Amino acid sequence: MALLQVRDVPEPTVRALKEQAAERGLTLAAYLRAELERMAARPTNAEIAARLARRNRLGGPTTDETVNEIRRIREVS
Question: I need a surface site. Which of 13, 50, 57, 76 has the fewest CB within 10 A?
Answer without folding.
Answer: 76
